[in-house]
Amino acid sequence: MIPQIHIEDYNYSLPDERIAKYPLPERDHSRLLVYDSDGPRSDSFLNLSSYLPEGAIMVFNDTKVVPARLHFRRQSGAHIEIFCLEPVSPKEYVSMFAVSGRCRWKCIVGNIKKWKGDILSLYNPSGDVRIDEMNLRAELIERLGEASVVEFSWQHDLPFSQVLDICGRVPIPPYLNRETEDVDLERYQTLYARFRGSVAAPTAGLHFTEKVMADISNRGISVETVCLHVGAGTFLPVKSSLVSGHSMHREPFVVSAKFIERLLAGSGKVVAVGTTSVRTLESLYYVGVKCLENGFPTDVEQWEPYQRDYVYSVSEALEAILKYLRDNKLTELEIGTKIIIVPGYRFKIVDVLVTNFHQPQSTLLLLISAFVGGDWKSIYDYALANDFRFLSYGDSSLLFRRD
């Protein structure tokens, strides 16, 4: 049954001065709120490893943020901002970033009412010769409600990844209320980012440095990676009074067969770095159920976990995915998820969570509430009373699950 949750119950007062507009000079110098059976307390992120359970598996999302914001201008002078969301043609991310000459993306278009269907040229106020020579253009192909399909074309034999690097801007969160600056090029990206595709950073990972990673390794914690490409839906507030009226966007993820084997072999706690890692890990269970019941995997739908009781064990579900991959001679699972995790959700895989502090009335705050057994208010009251910094560039927390 779909939970009937009033989003107003997940509101709190967040003064603008508590939102971290810029990162700290050092990634790992942020503060750490630790929450377990003793309640919340403060420490430094540098000491994170000392709180991790022995024998744990720590899971990171190694997606990489792409400079997905492009500014175009009509001949009339009107500015049109195009925000690339996900590939349309080619559809696969790897192929998209390697393609040259022409491609299509699903996009959010700012000021779209002023775009009359003409072909746009990239706005180049700096006079960058590379941009002029590339001659990047945009054509509106189709409107899809809030999004649109846009075709990009350019000259010279450059892959689209390089086109974005030259022409695009990093899409920092709108609640920072500022333009992208040079500091964001490095700091709105995790140290371990590998695979291009996200339009928002998995911000829990922004605190990690080589030193913190070495401390984790020295404690014997196993470090693993998954890859979920974060979509613009992560910024969307819940606008309906009941959460059941909110639609989650699909986000693609990739998990290797070797990672699933390690999950099955591990006997320790699973520590997820970020809500994106949580959504990936928890989605695996429902993908496995589909393999058990249908013989093949399909995307996880938004309310799937709540629609019936599931009798399969986690091991059975993960083994079913491995069997599907082996039978089809695949080394990776590539799938998508719309899963929403709200109070009442029964966690299957994740035991501990590293995460930042999230916006009021957001789906991420609902996930936190579900994870800590509804005790989110005491955590956020403590953070506000003790001067923690909030949102993407803010401080961190280490939360132990309460059922």
Describe the structure.
The strands form three sheets. A nine-stranded mixed beta sheet has the order 2-1-17-16-14-3-12-13-15. The protein has a six-stranded antiparallel barrel with strand order 5-6-7-10-9-8. The chain has helices at 93-98, 129-134, 160-167, 182-187, 210-218, 257-265, 275-294, 314-327, 363-371, 376-385; strands at 31-36, 39-44, 57-61, 63-65, 69-73, 79-89, 102-110, 120-122, 137-144, 147-153, 195-198, 222-228, 251-256, 270-273, 332-337, 352-356, 396-400. Helix 6 runs antiparallel to helix 8 and helix 7 crosses helix 8. The chain starts with 30 loop residues before the first strand and ends with a strand. The protein folds into two domains: 7-65 and 188-400, QueA-like; 69-169, no CATH class. Helices cover 24% and strands 25% of the residues. The mean pLDDT is 94. The chain has ten helices and 17 strands. The protein is α/β, with parallel strands linked by helices and 403 residues long. A hairpin with a 2-residue loop joins strand 9 (137-144) and strand 10.
